[in-house]
Amino acid sequence: MSTAPLPEFPTGFRWGVSTSAHQIEGATTADGRGPSIWDTFAQSAGRISDASTGEVACDHYHRHAEDVALLAGLGVSGYRFSIAWPRVQPSGSGPANAAGLDFYDRLVDELLAAGIDPVATLYHWDLPQPLEDAGGWLHRDTAGRFAEYADLTAARLGDRVRLWITLNEPFIQMSLGYGMGVHAPGHLLLFDAFPVAHHQLLGHGLAVAALRGRTASPVAIANNYSPVRVLGGRDADLAAGAAYEALHNRLFTDPLLGRGYPELPGFDASVIRPGDLDTIAAPIDVLGVNYYNPTGVRAAEEGSPLPFELVPLDGYPRTAFDWPVAPDGLHDLLGWLHTRYGEALPPIEITESGCAYDDAPGPDGQVSDPERIAYLDGHLRAVRAAIDDGVDVRGYFVWSLLDNWEWAEGFTKRFGLVHVDYASQTRTPKSSYTWLRDVIAASRPGSTR
């Protein structure tokens, strides 16, 4: 970690943290909430590494006032949270569940009272189970149901949410949930999962139209990006790198910005109907960029069902997830987006960036996490360098405020600025929380650096 102060960020730069509903809320049967695909997935033996569920998680549903106080103490100007579709529409269709929306109504008002912009994500992977039973994102009708849900939610909250995000990481939902089967709903379809990509993007476009009819607040999508590092100089390795870049980084960005889908081997494009690409390319105000690490790629062995093989990258420190800590990847990614999409690229906000480490309280009860501080320091410098290069980046949201239920990893991975004792639900700010609080305070106009 550099010992030098961080460079100054532009006036109005949005400092924030992110969470998601299923990972922190708990209260999975409160207020009429219905089951999601993650409730079902977690009940299946062997799916979650520690056999836990999100039934309680961080109990944020009951402790949200305490968590808003933590946000206020941190000094963030934005809080990105997600809304649980099954809490708003337990069956995935029909009228809104008013009791479920009441929770988000209270949360939004508390955030505004604390001077924090509510940044609401409509879909962070918790599809209502009845929609999955009807085909899930493989089924075109789910895109229409998503737009109806967006309309119902914005009708209640649209006057106060400051930024709407339609989907979180549709690539991960497609690849891990439907392609590789390691996330909910657990399908192993490989390239036959392409309808999931298209129907998510179609749902995004339909939701953009619904939101525009309910609110004047800006609208975004949050994509997961991973710059590709090709290992090996053979033509086959270069082709494998290009294929993976098209799959991971372009499949969910090219059509958003009016370029249509990239050519990919094995995808059946018959699900695309006339007018779909125009719907998907509805203008957005912000592109959310989620970044964790680059990906090493080389040509796959003969007979592999995939045209590429993912391989570890050497020469970087590793997180508890064994991900390389590579701030240079974030700088490269932002430059790639800026160069590839040019004037079609809307302003960017980093909507997730963070790291998991095995944080635990010391003998004094405090939680020291110098690795996370070094991670944030490096990645913020990478963002500032990209801004200096002409990339329009307007915010940075740390993943995450709280240690939480980390999907298929259960409670075994800790990403939070705040340590959570899951038995007692005690929250303990880590040293990274204090460090970021001071960084944010120093960025305010009139501060002494």
Automatic annotation (TrEMBL):
Enzyme class: hydrolase
Listed EC numbers: 3.2.1.21
UniProt KW keywords: Carbohydrate metabolism, Cellulose degradation, Glycosidase, Hydrolase, Polysaccharide degradation
Keyword Hydrolase in record: yes
Xref: Gene3D superfamilies: Glycosidases
The family this protein is said to belong to: Belongs to the glycosyl hydrolase 1 family.
Protein name: Beta-glucosidase
Species, as recorded: Micromonospora vulcania
Phylogenetic lineage: Bacteria, Bacillati, Actinomycetota, Actinomycetes, Micromonosporales
